[in-house]
TrEMBL record:
Domain of life the protein comes from: Bacteria
Annotated function: Participates in various redox reactions through the reversible oxidation of its active center dithiol to a disulfide and catalyzes dithiol-disulfide exchange reactions.
UniProt name for this protein: Thioredoxin domain-containing protein
GO cellular component: cytoplasm
Biological processes per GO annotation: response to stress
Family assignment from sequence similarity: Belongs to the thioredoxin family.
One Gene Ontology MF term: protein-disulfide reductase activity
Source species: Mycolicibacterium elephantis DSM 44368
């Protein structure tokens, strides 16, 4: 969605002023919103070193400062990303972190190497050098942070419509890209989410209250679920429709199930709310 709308339930960043350490210097702070762009996509251009840290750990901050100094010295040959495990626990869960500090290196979206605990500067230097040697010539990036990204003109136009808030023009532009290339990941996700956003923002403000008064009305339930997702309460939206699946049959049940699956697809498949929702749906069906 190029940052146009964030449908995930983002948690508030934990404050480092509650007796913990200050954030490590350098690097891009990772949230659920920028994880894909700053880690997965970026790692197809240059290696990305992810530091999973906590303000409760002085060793985390010291390691972050050391990595930040190395990243600055290397002038964009690799990227440093930091994940505050207290502020974004779901991101930490994706990396399978069990202790802080933990460092994971990725290239082309795949983990290459990792370690836990503090390391002396000379060992960090050797580890970074081995990472750069292992990925030399294998990634698309030049390593120059000032080198502009080469973007297809049609994709650039679609993004421009989206940034300008012209959802209909953006949807049509992305759809044209998708028609020409059915496997285009950005276009597929953008069409899905723009279509949802256009529908959901047209819902009446009292949709949830109306649906609660008539819980078996399918259209009212659909409207309420859309509003709940806009309010970043996906779990409530999923539970509402799962309950309706349990109370319906035949074509009505198929209709509700289809809408629920469409809502699941707005999110990362690893999202805990999606995992729980799919499990509840399976139980309701079988």
């Amino acid at each position: 969605m190029a940052g146009a709308v964030d449908l995930s339930a983002l948690k508030q960043r934990a404050s480092a002023g509650d007796g913990g350490s200050a954030a490590p210097s350098g690097g891009v702070e990772i949230t659920e919103a920028n994880l894909e762009a700053e880690v997965l996509v970026r790692s197809s251009q240059v290696p990305v070193v992810v530091l999973l840290w906590s303000p409760r750990s002085d060793a985390s901050v010291q390691l972050g400062d050391a990595l930040g100094s190395l990243a600055s010295a290397d002038g964009g040959k690799w990227s440093l990303a930091t994940v505050n495990v207290d502020a974004v626990p779901r991101v930490a869960q994706m990396f399978g972190v069990q202790a802080v500090p933990t460092v994971v290196a990725l290239a082309a979206g795949q983990p290459l190497s990792s370690f836990q605990g503090a390391q002396p500067p000379e060992q960090l230097r050797q580890w970074i050098d081995s990472l750069l040697n292992a990925t030399a010539g294998k990634l698309s990036g030049s390593g120059d942070p000032d080198q502009p990204e080469q973007v297809d003109p049609e994709l650039a136009q679609a993004r421009a419509h989206l940034d300008a808030g012209d959802f209909e023009a953006a949807r049509k532009a992305y759809q044209a890209i998708l028609d020409a290339n059915p496997g285009h990941a950005e276009a597929k996700g953008a069409v899905r989410q723009i279509s949802f956003l256009q529908r959901a923002t047209s819902r009446a403000p009292g949709a949830i209250v109306a649906a609660d008064a008539k819980p078996d009305d399918i259209e009212l339930a659909f409207a309420a679920a859309d509003v709940e997702i806009l309010q970043q309460n996906a779990a409530a939206a999923f539970d509402r429709l799962v309950g309706l699946v349990q109370r319906t049959s035949g074509d009505d049940r198929a209709k509700v199930r289809t809408r629920l699956v469409e809502l699941f697809e707005l999110f990362d498949p690893a999202d805990p709310d999606v995992i729980a929702g799919r499990r509840k749906l399976a139980n309701a069906l079988y």
